[in-house]
């Protein structure tokens, strides 16, 4: 992030372009320094509401590293990039020349936490997360790993 700011001579006190979820008058610095969501309470509630097989906090390493490490042996994940709309900051980063592949391996693209729950538990999990006033949606599935295939694959396109 620092490299992009330096390379493009961006001023952190400059107004951020308006976009979904960006407060009026926000600066680039405000948007880039927005704190992460704390998920401990909702994860606690989820653990009491339904089975949670795994949780991946999407941080440095993006989806391949973080989702890949929670998968049981012999499985893979397919993430549907069309299932959510990334916040405006990711469209901004893309406009600076950050390729989608790099964004997926570096940033969370708006998904701070990915959970693996049984298909039958999805409605209960979504309702529990909604009660915590957090957005939630089904973004993928766990499948059998085919020989030579990547652990984390994508379908669809990010709406940038």
What are the SSEs and their pairings?
Layout: H1 2-7, H2 28-32, H3 40-49, E1 54-57, H4 62-68, E2 75-80, H5 88-95, H6 100-106, E3 113-116, H7 122-131, E4 140-144, E5 152-155
Helix pairs in contact: 3-7, 4-6
What does this molecule look like?
With about 160 residues, the chain is α+β, with helices and mostly antiparallel strands. The chain has 2 domains: about 1-35, no CATH class; about 35-155, Phosphoribosyl-aminoimidazole Synthetase, Chain A, domain 2 (Alpha-Beta Complex), CATH 3.90.650.10. The chain is built from 7 helices and 5 strands. The chain has helices at about 1-5, 30, 40-50, 60-70, 90-95, 100-105, 120-130; strands spanning about 55, 75-80, 115, 140-145, 150-155. It has a 3-stranded mixed β-sheet with strand order 4-2-5. The protein has a two-stranded antiparallel sheet with strand order 1-3. The mean pLDDT is about 95.
Could you please say which CATH topology of the largest domain applies here? Phosphoribosyl-aminoimidazole Synthetase, Chain A, domain 2
At the fourth CATH level, what is the homologous superfamily of the largest domain?
Answer: PurM-like C-terminal domain
How confident is the prediction overall: mean pLDDT?
94
Q: What is the rounded distance between the termini? A: 18 Å
Radius of gyration: 17 Å
Number of alpha- plus pi-helical segments: 7
Q: Based on helices, strands and strand pairing, what is the structural class?
A: alpha+beta
Task: Give the SSE order as H and E letters.
Answer: HHHEHEHHEHEE
Strand residues, percent: 5-15%
* CATH level 1 name of the largest domain: Alpha Beta
Q: What is the number of strand segments?
A: 5
Low-confidence stretches: none
**CATH 2nd-level architecture of the largest domain:** Alpha-Beta Complex
Strand order of the largest sheet: 4-2-5
Residues in helix, %: 25-40%
Coarse shape: globular
Task: List the domain count as a whole number.
Answer: 2
Main sheet, how many strands, which sense, barrel?
Answer: 3 strands, mixed
